[in-house]
Amino acid sequence: MASASESEAGPTATFRRQPSPEREFERLYRESYELVYNYVRCRMGDDAAAEDVVAEAYLKAARSFGKFDPARARFSTWVISIASNCMRDHWRRNRPTSCIDDVPENRLACPNGTGEVADRDLADRLLGVLDPAERELVVMKYREGYRNVDIAADLGMNASTVATKLANALAKMREARGI
Predict the structure, then answer these.
(1) Which end of the chain has less Cβ packing within 10 Å, N or C?
(2) What percent of the chain has pLDDT over 90?
(3) Alpha carbon distance 72, 156 (integer Å)
């Protein structure tokens, strides 16, 4: 006797199998890993710390994959927002105890060299006066070229809040430079 679904569709009907959630997550992981890693590495300035944060972000994403809604955001955007929270947690746990002058220059530079500035050393030192959240905003805006609305979407903020925080961060940097 034919099952109900077989009798409705006919015995020769072919059904396209949807990938299992595990396989879909693996596919999305492979497609997004480089983008997420570069995002975190540029902000962390340390390969080992970036790898730890990215691993933690993907672990949290895997555990919450059922909550991911592709209608609200791309998978990479969703994981980047998780990674941003993981970076903040990392910075809270590992507050720097050294002066910006003690940090090697290669730890401050973004590895892909985007957003070149005439005096890169000065720019990095001025970024050092900002807290991690302010630094992230300034890097996204001025090194990576994001618009305020894109930053707001990635970080879950209002665009006017982003503009205000950027203005405050730039004022802090000007004050540190003596402008």
Answers:
(1) N
(2) 27
(3) 12
